[in-house]
Amino acid sequence: MSRAARGARRTLVAPIRWYQRFVSPMRPATCKYYPSCSSYAVTAVERHGILKGLVLAAWRLLRCNPWSKGGVDDVPPLGEWRSPTLHEGQHNDHHHLSGTAV
To answer: Which of 14, 67, 85, 87 has a CA 20 to 30 Å removed from the CA of 100?
Structure first.
C-alpha cells in the first residue's frame, strides 16, 4: 500500500477514533451489533480500503435501526461483501458462538 493510501486511511479513521475516545464513553451503551458501528467502520476501511470500507460502514449504519435485531456482524473478509458471522439477535459477547450461556 502506498504512503498516500495509508495517509488517506488514517485521515478518514481519525474522526472515528476521536469519537470512540471522547464521545462514546459519555453515552450509554446502546449498540445493537457487535462490534460497534464505529469499530466496524474502522476495520472496514483498514481491511477493504476507503471506498469499499465506507460503503460497508454506511450499510451497517443503515441496518442499525429500531427494527433491527442486531447481533454479531463482523467485517467481511477481503473479496466478500457479506459477513459470514452475522448472528442476528445475539450481541455483546462471544459466548453464544461456542454454545455456552453467559
So the answer is: 67
Q: State which residues form the domain around 49.
A: 33-66
- Is 55 inside a domain boundary? yes
Banded pLDDT at 59 (limits 50, 70, 90):
very high
Q: Say if CB 87 and CB 71 are below 8 A apart.
A: yes
Residue 39 belongs to some domain of the structure? yes
Predicted pLDDT at 47: 95
Residue 90: which pLDDT band, with cuts at 50, 70 and 90? low
At residue 48, does pLDDT exceed 50? Answer: yes
Q: How many domains are contained in the chain?
A: 1
